[in-house]
């Protein structure tokens, strides 16, 4: 059986839908950021002026425009301006290395990159640049341009943005998402209500497709977009922002949602709809949220980037049982097929692969016709000529009531902390390093730290894990850098001669990994406490006081646990950046002692 939920939104562009809201409520607040308030009419005018400037720089219909910027008002203005000029945006994550930006720019082909002053070195020379926070841009250029719309002839099938995901061949792949797909996600849908009384938090990086929902759902429904300041907030700082901004709709990755449910979830009193996804949700944490916030709605959102953020959603208004949390029903404008290897529908209750069709399907991968043909197939069930469906690679089963349950991946693709990752891309980066002969990347699950990437590698004795990790970090985004790197004499093989990933996944690693520092035992009670805490979070037998937190495999979700522990035990309010700046046990102990003194 094929499940379809019809879309009722009118066919138009993203910016035309925004302009309709701006005309209807010109004085309503569109964006809030601290003490700053920007109304719909003002946002529309600012975006129009920048769009005229972009047009003068050569941006037209179907033009790719890079954007490397942190969360800010000018970033949102820039996104609107790109669309109004007829172009589509290609987000370059500021946290990723310049080498990664160069790869994406070469493939996506933007001749212009919009950025901010402090990020200019990351993109300078890759294409022409416009510095969004340059005061002279406003005073010397934009102030003299028209505040009226360009009227670019943009149709629903034209590109709105390109979002890059990890690629199994060792190269990232960019899904080209059209305007109709964004409209299908945020207008008149069946999983989310949004109106003038709502406020959404802009929290996800632009390069993460959750930002599509966060930004366009409020701005295309007359609601308010509340911008979280740049940086990685602690759980308490995130809760502070939610309360101060009066956020009513909040999206969190599954890992962060679980941590919030164990932490300050009771402070999220303004939130009426909490969406979580990117990985399997825990019933325990869902029920803890309901206990802390009676009346809240929790939504389990599932979907690949290639089908525009969400394909299915499971809405929960009350506590759930102990079984797996379903991914739910198709979202509006989406068709879900559960098919066997020969693309035949399987009966309800049987396992099959999920294929997604409808208005949310991306146009394909930029510059990758072979991969596009492999993953985007003709949809035999569609009535629209030329319609395609996306092969997700996810195993599911559909219940008799139409609700879909996620069972796992067909291939080796994994999700870690909300990011979809192809281990092959990481393995390619590892083997590219001098002296490395072979590598395999798997996911280990630890009760404290959750899922983490572990790289097993075969290499010459001259290759040190710490140096190898640094080299890979220069080529890959932070979320793709393995938490642990373990040297092995040879990778285990199955009877068929393939790498035995299951054996590596089951192999426990408790020994302290090689780092740039020799082992030094803790010398004070506080150092011993922190060393034991770090070892517990990372599943290691011991940690030296000079070992770098991130070389040991630490990540941002662990940082929030450490910050909470220090606050509870010592009454010292650390910020996440304190651990980034003081990343060894010895350095952090000095910070705590100095603050307590």
From TrEMBL:
**Where would I find the Carrier domain in this sequence?**
521-596
The entry's keywords: Phosphopantetheine, Phosphoprotein
- Has keyword Oxidoreductase? no
- Keyword Phosphoprotein, does the record have it? yes
> What PANTHER family does the entry give?
FATTY ACID SYNTHASE, NONRIBOSOMAL PEPTIDE SYNTHETASE
Instruction: Please identify the protein, giving its name as recorded.
Output: Carrier domain-containing protein
Q: Which organism is it from?
A: Streptomyces blastmyceticus
């Amino acid at each position: 059986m094929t499940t379809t939920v019809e879309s009722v939104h009118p066919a138009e562009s993203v910016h035309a839908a925004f302009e309709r809201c701006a005309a209807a409520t010109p004085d309503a607040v569109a964006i809030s950021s601290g003490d700053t308030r920007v109304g719909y009419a003002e946002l529309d005018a600012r975006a129009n002026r920048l769009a005229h400037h972009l047009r003068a720089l050569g941006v037209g219909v179907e033009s790719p425009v890079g954007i490397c910027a942190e969360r800010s008002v000018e970033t949102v203005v820039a996104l609107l301006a790109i669309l109004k000029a007829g172009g589509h945006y290609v987000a370059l994550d500021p946290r990723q290395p310049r080498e990664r930006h160069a790869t994406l720019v070469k493939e996506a082909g933007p001749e212009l990159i919009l950025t901010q002053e402090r990020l200019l070195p990351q993109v300078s020379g890759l294409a022409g640049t416009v510095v969004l926070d340059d005061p002279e841009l406003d005073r010397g250029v934009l102030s003299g341009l028209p505040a009226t719309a360009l009227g670019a002839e943009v149709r629903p099938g034209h590109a709105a943005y390109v979002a890059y995901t990890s690629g199994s061949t060792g190269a990232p792949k960019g899904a080209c998402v059209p305007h109709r797909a964004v409209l299908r996600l945020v207008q008149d849908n069946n999983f989310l209500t949004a109106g003038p009384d709502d406020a959404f938090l802009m929290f996800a990086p632009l390069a993460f497709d959750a930002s599509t929902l966060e930004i366009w759902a409020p701005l295309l429904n007359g609601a308010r977009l509340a911008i979280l300041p740049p940086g990685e907030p602690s759980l308490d700082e995130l809760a502070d922002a939610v309360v101060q901004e009066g956020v009513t709709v909040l999206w969190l990755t599954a890992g962060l949602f679980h941590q919030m449910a164990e932490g300050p979830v009771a402070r999220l009193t303004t939130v009426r709809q909490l969406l979580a996804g990117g990985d399997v949700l825990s019933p325990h944490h869902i029920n803890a949220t309901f206990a802390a916030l009676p009346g809240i709605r929790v939504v389990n959102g599932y979907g690949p980037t290639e089908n525009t953020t969400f394909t299915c959603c499971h809405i929960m208004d009350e506590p759930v049982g102990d079984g797996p949390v379903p991914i739910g029903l198709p979202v509006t404008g989406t068709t879900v097929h559960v098919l066997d290897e020969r693309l035949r529908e399987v009966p309800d209750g049987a396992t099959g692969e999920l294929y997604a069709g409808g208005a949310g399907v991306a146009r394909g991968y930029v510059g990758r016709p072979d991969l596009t043909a492999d993953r985007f197939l003709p949809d035999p069930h569609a009535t629209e000529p030329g319609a395609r469906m996306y092969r997700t690679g996810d195993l599911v089963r559909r219940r008799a009531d139409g609700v879909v349950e996620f069972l796992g991946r067909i291939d080796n693709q994994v999700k870690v902390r909300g990011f979809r990752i192809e281990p092959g891309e990481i393995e390619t980066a590892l083997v590219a390093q001098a002296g490395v002969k072979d590598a395999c990347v798997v996911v280990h699950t630890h009760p404290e730290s959750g899922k983490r990437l572990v790289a097993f590698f075969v290499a010459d004795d001259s290759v040190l894990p710490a140096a190898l990790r640094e080299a890979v970090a220069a080529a890959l985004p932070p979320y793709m850098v393995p938490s642990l790197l373990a040297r092995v004499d040879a990778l285990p093989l199955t009877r068929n001669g393939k790498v035995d990933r299951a054996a590596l996944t089951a192999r426990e690693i408790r020994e302290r990994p090689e780092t740039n520092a020799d082992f030094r035992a803790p010398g004070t009670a506080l150092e011993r406490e922190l060393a034991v805490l770090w070892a517990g979070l990372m599943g290691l037998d011991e940690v030296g006081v000079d070992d770098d937190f991130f070389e040991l495999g630490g990540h941002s979700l662990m940082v929030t646990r450490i910050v909470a522990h220090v606050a509870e035990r010592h009454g010292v309010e650390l910020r996440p950046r304190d651990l980034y700046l003081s990343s060894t046990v010895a350095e952090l102990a000095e910070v705590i002692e100095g603050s307590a003194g």
